[in-house]
């Protein structure tokens, strides 16, 4: 049996734009997700164009025709000024469609001229992937959607000029799944380019310098800041220290959390409050064996503690423990009591349960819990415990064994210790405590809390004459295996090793 190949078609690109989704127009008031905008003196033609753009994608020629039909040619200038104003406010989305049967469907250079050998790059496949110059300006978008420039944060959507010469994606671009395809965003940019499966070949080409990508698509990418500067013979991203020292994921995290305009929401937005209840400030008792801890007398401690200046000057990271005189249960309890116990709880104005501890925390959320991983403490069996900061007691999570051994070894190796640390303090975060309220800044806020807790452990440990050493990293998957906790709900975000201080400890940092 023989089959007949599908008819071959050619295509070109069609540039369109629309008001951002959800926009409504009521007389002279434009309501968007950013708020209300009063537009005084709108002409009938401008009203008609805005209503049409609120309903879907139009070409520039179609919107101009709507304006001219009611305002005449003289109304175009006022419309262009209004359109530029709305574009600068980030109220438009720009898109590129393919148009079936377009003429001169070749992979052009960014400047619009056919590339060398373009006759061999002519697209004639049935999928109709578009390329080359913009198609009939008065035609409705009839082909497949290729790409759309959308606002992720808040910034201008005015299109930038198409780069001249070959183009390449910036090495810092981050791509993630999105509805209907992929979303590409550059660090610090408030804009994202959503690419459909029809545009997938362009991503592969843009991994290196190329002139075989449609110019309208390139223009969207340039507007989103997703194209690398320079060219094949002048590639700053391949030479600049500032560019090379950043991993794309690290830079995306840094810019997203430090440039509010690049994120959809920033700060206390309560974006999950309508779906989930806030987590309690303290974890309810589990089934593990509970070990009460003695309560230290703070008045006695205050009378004999060294001054803050002395503690600061004597603080250092000590990676040796005194095996002959190990840390005692009472001393471990004092360290935890003076650093992370819950002194009181109260309810915030948003209904979330809050707490007061010796360490500060943003929003009084106190999402951090401490899990002492004990190898050698006088008066306490080895194992992984959780410090119940509301009850000042330890609760056994896992007995010492194969599940806890990797955590001990990892801490020992990270601290470069000759023997197992007497205690590893695993600092875990219950992420929902912070993410229920905060958007974008939630995880960096948790890391700030970890830094505060590290310093508090150092200062209290130094005042107590203990050996304390903060670690730079850890394995949250090993913690999940040992505890059985969902790593998306709770995971380790810091580790310290603590033990009795030898008489003559090696110098630390």
Report on this model:
The relative contact order is 0.09. This protein is α+β, with helices and mostly antiparallel strands. The protein is elongated, with a radius of gyration of 31 Å. It is 27% helix and 22% strand. The strands form five sheets. Strands 11-16-15-14-17-20-19 form a seven-stranded antiparallel sheet, with helices on both faces. The protein has a six-stranded antiparallel sheet with strand order 1-5-6-9-8-7, sandwiched between helices. The model is unreliable at 1-11 and 102-140 (pLDDT under 50). Strand 12 and strand 13 (353-356) form a beta hairpin.
Briefly characterize the structure.
The chain is α+β, with helices and mostly antiparallel strands and 509 residues long. It contains 14 helices and 20 strands.
How are the elements arranged and paired?
Elements: E1 11-19, E2 24-26, E3 29-32, E4 35-38, H1 44-55, H2 60-71, H3 75-88, E5 92-100, E6 145-151, E7 174-178, E8 181-185, E9 191-195, H4 200-205, H5 215-223, H6 241-244, H7 248-258, E10 267-268, E11 290-292, H8 298-304, H9 308-314, H10 329-340, E12 344-347, E13 353-356, E14 368-374, E15 383-388, E16 393-399, H11 405-415, E17 423-430, H12 432-435, E18 438-439, H13 442-463, E19 466-471, H14 476-483, E20 490-500
Antiparallel strand pairs: 1-5, 2-3, 3-4, 5-6, 6-9, 7-8, 8-9, 10-18, 11-16, 12-13, 14-15, 14-17, 15-16, 17-20, 19-20
Helix pairs in contact: 1-2, 9-13, 10-13
The largest beta-sheet arranges its strands as 11-16-15-14-17-20-19
**Structural class, from helix and strand content?**
alpha+beta
Number of strands: 20
Distance between the termini: 79 Å
What percent strand?
15-25%
Helix fraction? 25-40%
Question: Largest sheet, if any?
Answer: 7 strands, antiparallel
Average pLDDT score: 89
Tell me, what's the shape?
elongated
Low-confidence stretches: 1-11, 102-140
**Rg (C-alpha, Å):** 31 Å
């Amino acid at each position: 049996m023989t089959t007949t190949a599908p008819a071959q078609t050619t295509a070109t690109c069609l540039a369109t734009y629309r008001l951002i989704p959800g926009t409504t127009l009521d007389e002279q008031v434009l309501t968007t997700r950013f708020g209300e905008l009063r537009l005084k003196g709108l002409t009938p033609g401008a009203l008609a164009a805005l209503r049409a753009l609120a309903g879907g994608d139009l070409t520039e020629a179609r919107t101009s025709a709507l304006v001219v039909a009611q305002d005449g040619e003289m109304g175009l200038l006022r419309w262009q000024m209004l359109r530029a104003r709305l574009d600068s406010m980030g109220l438009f989305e720009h898109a590129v469609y393919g148009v079936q049967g377009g003429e001169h469907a070749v992979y052009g250079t960014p400047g619009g001229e056919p590339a060398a050998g373009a006759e061999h790059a002519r697209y004639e496949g049935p999928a109709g992937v578009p390329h080359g110059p913009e198609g009939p300006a008065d035609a409705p978008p009839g082909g497949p959607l290729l790409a759309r420039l959308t606002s992720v944060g808040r910034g201008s959507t005015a299109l930038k000029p198409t780069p001249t010469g070959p183009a390449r994606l910036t090495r810092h671009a981050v791509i993630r799944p999105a509805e209907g395809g992929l979303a590409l965003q550059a660090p610090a940019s408030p804009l994202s380019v959503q690419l459909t499966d029809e545009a997938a070949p362009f991503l592969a080409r843009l991994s290196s310098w190329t002139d075989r990508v449609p110019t309208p698509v390139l223009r969207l990418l340039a507007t989103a800041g997703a194209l690398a500067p320079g060219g094949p013979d002048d590639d700053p991203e391949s030479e600049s220290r500032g560019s090379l020292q950043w991993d794309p994921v690290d830079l995306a995290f840094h810019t997203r959390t430090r440039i509010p305009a690049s994120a959809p929401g920033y700060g206390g937005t309560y974006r999950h409050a309508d779906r989930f209840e806030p987590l309690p400030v303290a974890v309810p008792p589990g089934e593990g064996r509970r070990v009460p801890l003695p309560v230290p007398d703070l008045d006695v401690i205050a009378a004999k503690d060294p001054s803050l200046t002395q503690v600061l000057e004597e603080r250092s990271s000590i990676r040796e423990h005194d095996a002959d005189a190990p840390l005692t249960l009472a001393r471990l309890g004092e360290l935890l009591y003076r650093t992370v116990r819950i002194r009181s709880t109260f309810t915030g104005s948003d209904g979330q349960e809050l707490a007061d501890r010796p360490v500060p925390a943003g929003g009084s959320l106190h999402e951090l819990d401490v899990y002492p991983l004990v190898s050698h403490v006088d008066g306490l069996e080895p194992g992984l415990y959780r410090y119940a900061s509301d009850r000042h007691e330890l609760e056994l999570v896992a007995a010492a064994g194969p599940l806890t051994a990797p955590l001990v070894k990892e801490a020992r190796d990270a601290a470069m210790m000759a023997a197992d640390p007497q205690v590893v303090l695993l600092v875990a975060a219950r992420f929902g405590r912070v993410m229920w309220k905060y958007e974008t800044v939630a995880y960096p806020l948790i890391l700030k809390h970890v830094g505060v807790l590290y310093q508090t452990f150092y200062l209290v440990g130094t005042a107590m004459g203990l050996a304390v050493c903060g670690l730079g990293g850890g394995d949250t998957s090993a913690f999940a295996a040992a505890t059985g906790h969902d790593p998306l709900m709770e995971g380790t975000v810091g580790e310290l090793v603590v033990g009795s201080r030898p008489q003559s400890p090696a110098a630390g940092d």
